[in-house]
Amino acid sequence: MTGYADRPWLKHFTEEQRQDVEHPPSVLHSFLDAAGRVPDHQALRYFDGALGYRELDDLSDGLARHLVARGFAPGDRLAVMLQNVPQFVVAVLAAWRAGGTVVPVNPMYRQGELAHILQDAGVAAIVCSESAWHDYVRATAAGSPVRIALTASEFDLQTRDDPRVLTATRRPADDARDLLAAARAGGPAYDAVLPAADDTALISYTSGTSGRPKGARNTHGNLSFNAHRQIRIQALGDDAVVFALAPVFHITGMVCQLSAALAAGHTLALAYRFEPGVVLDAFREHRPAYTVGPSTAFMALLARPDATAADFASFRLISSGGAPLPPAVVEAFRSRTGGLYLANGYGLTECSAPCASVPPGSEAPVDPVSGTLAVGVPGPGTMVRILDDAGAEVPFGTQGEIAVTGPMVVPGYWNRPEESAAALPGGELLTGDIGFMDEDGWLYVVDRKKDMINASGFKVWPREVEDVLYTHPAVREAAVVGVPDAYRGESVKAYVSLRPGADADPAEIVAYCKERLAAYKYPREVEVLGDLPKTATGKILRRELKAQAG
Ligand code: AMP
């Protein structure tokens, strides 16, 4: 009998791809190596501006000195609360150079969420936008351990010629260069010891498998392994431009875009925040070879009437990750882009972005019974098992909890020994996702364990119902939740938004699902909304809809 230990997924990789991924202890090592190798190559692009590797090296060194001069010490935490802007990258590299840990913070967080993170992570320094600083960060930081604050406009690098201003009040960019140049000339040299693989690179806040937001401790080794694994498997070529569709403050953007691009000596193109029209312009301008974003971003791009196949012609690979990908979206994307395959990928903050993806050249199968699209196969060096409630492996094809081991799995949460022990027994990550694996090693994610709907004792997985809704011609986005029901305990309710110009009657959508799903699964009620609530990282917020319904 074969089992997970036989790693049936390895057959999808070439002999070379299966070899251990050689990677330095940190992405910073690789970046500095790239800066020495290709100093004149563009490291970053931001609208009309660009920064070369040498410049990025100098600026991040300057900021590291500036921080150290103001008391930032090895092991200290720097919160970076910015959108996809060059300053984000400079700040991350600076923190790592000074021996610190980065705490990426979603810039859309409000006071309460930010206060929790500043306290919980014991943040010593923060970089944010000038407007956020004046709006509420200053007040929030006042009651926190923060000792050093910098606004992005104090090192405003690239936005001076661009009408899309980054901050409310801007100084001439030369001031910014002065600040960093002065620090570089006069600041104390910091201890130039590079990070060790076990040092904490990031504290990434996530609601994780359950409960209140907690900080996953992504080590430098976690990031370096996943970045180099991606570089090896993608083989994009030296001049590749990687477009940051996902926010770099989230783990997918941080690892698959920022870390992989800078470790490979590629060019990372940033465009502030996701706005479909701006993204299409950026594709036309930067001609990226690769990007990754949540499926909802691709749905939004497909909804743009002006998106043409030519806009996507430069892509060699394009991935959807971080949220369920309905098979109907893959096909819509293929026909709209002239044949481009949207490759699924699965991961969590706790495994430093992907732990399974579709190998280049392959296409993920769709399970004939449930209609679920596979998320990919585990990468070489990764172990995935499917476990029952007692922690025993279930046979291939049987549903259970997905458990992951590998060099990209975090050692634990920041200052949470009990939650770490519960989520990572013996170092194996219990993901809280229900899934199954077929005999060829393709992994299928059924849904989040906690999102299961119990209708009269029947288990309904929202994603399966959503997949059917996405095949309806009028539906743009769909979210399915359980709502209280006096008779069934819970019943299935769907929220949808419609394609531009489309019109649909909720009763007709109910009937459409009824024809295609078992009697206990089809939504008893469909409500049409203008837009569905989403996280900044593009995940549709079922829990918000559930609260609204309940
Ligand atoms: P995060 O930690 O924010 O990256 O969220 C991780 C969660 O996103 C996982 O536990 C899954 O529930 C979900 N997820 C990520 N990728 C996929 C995918 N390809 N298909 C379905 N769910 C996904």
The fold-level CATH name of one domain is Rossmann fold
Bound molecules: adenosine monophosphate
Report the structural category: alpha/beta
Separation of termini?
47 Å
- The Cα radius of gyration reads 23 Å
Determine the mean pLDDT.
Answer: 90
Which residue ranges are poorly predicted, with pLDDT under 50 across at least 5 consecutive positions? 158-174
The CATH architecture name of one domain reads 3-Layer(aba) Sandwich
Strand order of the largest sheet: 2-1-10-9-11-12-13-14-15
In terms of quaternary structure, the protein is: single chain
- The fraction of residues assigned to DSSP E strands is 15-25%
Basic shape: globular
Tally of DSSP β-strands: 24
Biggest β-sheet strands, sense, barrel: 9 strands, mixed
GO molecular function, one term: acid-thiol ligase activity
Family: Belongs to the ATP-dependent AMP-binding enzyme family.
Protein name: Long-chain acyl-CoA synthetase
Pfam families: AMP-binding, AMP-binding_C
Q: Secondary structure elements and their pairing?
A:
Blueprint: H1 15-18, H2 27-37, E1 42-46, E2 49-52, H3 53-69, E3 77-81, H4 86-97, E4 101-104, H5 111-120, E5 125-128, H6 130-142, E6 148-151, H7 173-186, E7 200-206, E8 214-219, H8 220-234, E9 241-243, H9 251-264, E10 267-270, H10 276-286, E11 290-293, H11 295-302, E12 317-321, H12 327-336, E13 343-348, E14 353-357, E15 377-378, E16 383-387, E17 400-405, H13 417-423, E18 429-437, E19 443-448, E20 453-455, E21 458-460, H14 462-469, E22 475-485, E23 489-498, H15 506-516, E24 525-528, H16 542-549
Parallel strand pairs: 1-10, 3-4, 3-5, 5-6, 9-10, 9-11, 11-12, 12-13, 23-24
Antiparallel strand pairs: 1-2, 7-8, 13-14, 14-15, 16-17, 17-18, 18-19, 20-21, 22-23
The structure holds adenosine monophosphate.
Adenosine monophosphate binds next to strand 13, strand 18 and strand 19.
